Amino acid sequence: RDAEHWRQNQNALSTVTMAENGLNIFNPLPLFGLDSLVPFEVPFMQLLSALMQKIGFSSVYTLRPVSWLIFILFLYVSYFFVKKLDDTTLAQTTVLFLVLHPTIYKFSNSYMIEFIPHLFGIFSLLLLNRKSIYSSRFFITLSLLSKITTGIIYLFFWFIFYVYRQKEGINKLLISIVVIFIPNIIWNIMADS
After folding, report:
1. Could you tell me the sign of the dihedral formed by the alpha carbons of 18, 181, 125, 102, in that order?
2. Cα(19)–Cα(25) distance, integer angstroms
């Protein structure tokens, strides 16, 4: 049994509602009251699950397997990111720590959704390290959109990487800031209206 079963139920109800009533970036459930339209994050996992349900997959096969797949992708990208920065031993140790961490098992199905911003954030850092600035901006933006409280941590690391590794000057940094924040500002304005 999940420790945070309310979150798992909320995700399941959201995906079934989206599958039955149409895909929508705004979470169909009231979060702050009956008339609330303010979602905490862009519901990427719920949209993917609802799309799979519309295609014909049962909801039993669209929530937990999708969230575990996201977690496995996060482990995969994390391994390559740490390996690129340091070495294989540290990368293996990091992934082993993440797999065996007790929080993963205690909150497994309810918190697997939380790995979406981590996946996007780590992937943006990996791309930035490979000098793929445009793709990196896109994925750090997705990290912020999927969960601002987690994405902001990756944005902090992104700025550190950008300033110390890219050495491209203040103008390009300011352009990056604008490109990253505009979709987030638009999302917050739309979600709050």
Report:
1. negative
2. 12
Q: How far is CA 142 from CA 80, 116, 139, in A?
A: 20, 9, 5
As a residue count, the chain comes to 193
The CA-CA-CA angle for residues 182, 183, 188, to 5°, reads 100
User: Residue 32 class from Cβ within 10 Å (0-12 exposed, 13-18 middle, 19+ buried)?
Assistant: exposed
Ordered per-residue pLDDT tens for the chain, 193 residues: 455 666 677 777 888 888 888 887 766 654 555 555 555 678 888 888 889 999 999 888 888 788 888 888 888 888 888 888 777 888 888 888 777 776 666 655 555 667 888 899 999 999 998 888 899 999 999 999 988 888 899 999 998 888 877 677 778 888 889 999 999 888 877 776 6
Q: State the burial class of residue 100 (Cβ atoms within 10 Å of its Cβ: 0-12, 13-18, 19+).
A: exposed
CA dist 102 and 77 (Å) reads 21
Distance CA 61, CA 157 (A): 35
Q: Are 8 and 2 in contact (CB under 8 A)?
A: yes
- d(Cα 125, Cα 113) in Å, to the nearest integer? 20
Q: Is 72 helix (H, G, I), strand (E, B) or coil?
A: helix
Q: Which amino acid is at 90?
A: L
